[in-house]
Design brief:
Elements lengths: L8 E9 L2 E9 L5 H10 L11 E8 L2 E8 L9 H8 L3 E7 L3 H5 L1 H7 L6 E6 L9 H11 L3 E3 L8 H12 L8 E9 L1
Parallel strand pairs: 2-4, 2-5, 5-6, 6-7
Antiparallel strand pairs: 1-8, 3-4
Amino acid sequence: MLPGLTIYFLYFFFYIDTMERIRVAFVGAPKVGKSAVIHQFLSHTFLEDYDPTIEDFFQAQRNGVVLEIVDLSGSLLRPESKFRQEALAFCHVVVFMFCMNDGESLSLINSYKKEDKRNLPLVLVGNKMDNKWRVCPHELRNVEYELETTYFPVSAKLPVNIDQLFDTIIERGKSTAEPEEEIVSKCCWIL
């Protein structure tokens, strides 16, 4: 190398980011705590005030997976709801959420399941386990049997089982998710 001569090399390389993406939709009756559970997972805080959701989208990384979370409105109860049908069409996992102190929210789960035309992996979640339970154990067992799963009890308020819930979502979603390729460029200066 010649003295006094500085040579700059600009080195570009490309790699393919194959981080797995799992899209999950949270479905359930109004006021069962879908947004509260998601918010507790993302920011580790509890939402005290109820603010009805229209639709919200979130993204987070956990265990080497990008989670794309769709929080669907509980007021979209009609089976013909086009927005919910479209959201379910692009998801890898569905979370059916009911409230442990509201038996009616559990009875709506079967109507949501009928909308799932792709037979996606699902997670049945009972929120507000810290409150007095008003869900009929017999009806809960019937729903578990019909959906071929067991329910996952959580509390967004305390918080209890929130991280475990999202680990379960990732585990179930890995069976249907495919890695999306994204070309990312990096550069490095060598002096």
